[in-house]
Design brief:
About 70% of the residues lie in helices and about 0% in strands. It is mostly helical. InterPro entries: HflD (IPR007451), HflD-like_sf (IPR035932).
Length: about 210
């Protein structure tokens, strides 16, 4: 069943979350840096394990998904080069594949929930810096997500990719991409919608972009 009614807004938001994660992976792997505010949004989305709404995963503001919505629109209207679009799509498919593997593995789901819950609890006590959260979430990614198989191949500058801090940040934004992919599936998202409802998705995403970013 393809959902295009009351949940369509949530579908666009959650898929934009995936797109934003992918855009940050590209920035980090090619330049070694990304926006601090957008990176923090990614970190916070992972820690939001009991959201009241789709938007609450992203700090209760559509503005926090500006990069993701822009990336989604660029994909839908073929504004990127063939190589850029291909790279973005490969990352998206890899992220959704890991989400599917995670969904099928209840042991790893429980392990992930426990580790994140412990991190949230400790963070409330100790008020971790984002550098500390980055290190800890990167380790959770290595301990749990990486063991699911189908590791995501990251393309970029080999010199930059050897940097440990960059590696940790990339793992975190990939982690946030998987978190958004889980949310996307929960609200009824699927790839068939981009075949049968491409124009509707583009128009609604474009209206959202114009409303908040023009």
């Amino acid at each position: 069943m393809i959902i295009v009614d009351k949940n369509f807004y949530s579908i666009i938001l959650s898929f934009s979350g995936i797109c934003q994660s992918v855009a940050l992976v590209c920035q980090l792997s090619e330049t070694g840096s990304c926006s601090d505010s957008e990176f923090k949004i990614s970190i916070n989305s992972i820690l939001e394990i009991n959201p009241k709404t789709t938007l609450s995963v992203y700090g209760n503001s559509e503005k926090n998904l500006q990069l993701g919505i822009k990336t989604l629109l660029s994909l839908l209207n073929n504004a990127n080069s063939y190589n850029t679009s291909g790279k973005i799509l490969r990352y998206i498919l890899s992220i959704t594949l890991l989400e599917k593997k995670l969904k099928r593995n209840i042991v790893y789901q429980n392990m992930l929930y426990t580790r994140i819950s412990e991190l949230i609890k400790n963070n409330l006590k100790e008020y971790y810096s984002y550098d500390t959260l980055t290190d800890k979430l990167s380790q959770i990614y290595l301990d749990v997500i990486s063991r699911l198989g189908s590791r995501i191949q990251v393309f970029g500058s080999q010199t930059i990719l050897k940097n440990i801090l960059v590696q940790n940040k990339i793992r975190c934004v990939l982690f946030s991409g998987i978190r958004s992919a889980v949310l996307w599936k929960q609200v009824g998202g699927n790839f068939f919608q981009f075949i049968f409802f491409r124009n509707q998705i583009y128009n609604q995403a474009n209206d959202l972009f114009k409303k908040f970013f023009y």
